[in-house]
Amino acid sequence: MNKKLVAALSGGAVLLMALSGCSGGDDTDSKVNNWAKKVCDQVQPQLTKIASANNSIQQATSDRSKPAEVQQTDSAAFQSISQAYKALGTAVDSAGAPPGDEGEKTQQEAVKELNATSTAYAGLKTKVDALDTKDQAKFADGLKGVADELEKLSTSGDHALQRLQSGDVGKAMARQPGCQKPSPSTGGSSAPTAAGGQS
């Protein structure tokens, strides 16, 4: 229904995919590895939650669903993404400062950024909840506004996260399975069968 929302969403996980970018390098110090493991063990469920919420929005948006259904799906998805970013902030916070120069400052800035993103998604949920689903044109218009904000959100502020993942800490995080991108297949549809014939 609103291609712009889908497009914005594909960029929406940019912040996070920063978390699961770069490939590992040589072995680094065990302190760094321990820190990365502590964070990454908590990251994976949140990455999966965000990917799954993004999928549900894309599904509802492209399925020509009724406005009320789109509203319900988007609202639940934004809520879920907001909680996931909050949990990521907590994970980075509770892991303590990563080893290395300015570790504490980098950690605090990353936590602040993740929490701000969580708040922004909670704000999008509130906006979606307030849309008028009885008027298709108004609803589409309102959804466009939400997509615009989502686009801004996906292109802004992941500087602290990028800093968190630079140098040895970044290499150590990249080696942890928990910090790697969840695979796109999140169950659900199996391969199509020929049972339906050619309707």
Automatic annotation (TrEMBL):
Alphabetical list of PROSITE patterns matching this protein: PROKAR_LIPOPROTEIN
Protein name: Small secreted protein
Biased segments, Low complexity type: 182-199
Keywords, sorted A to Z: Signal
Cleavable signal peptide: 1-25
Recorded superkingdom: Bacteria
Presence of keyword Signal: yes
Segments for region (Disordered): 167-199
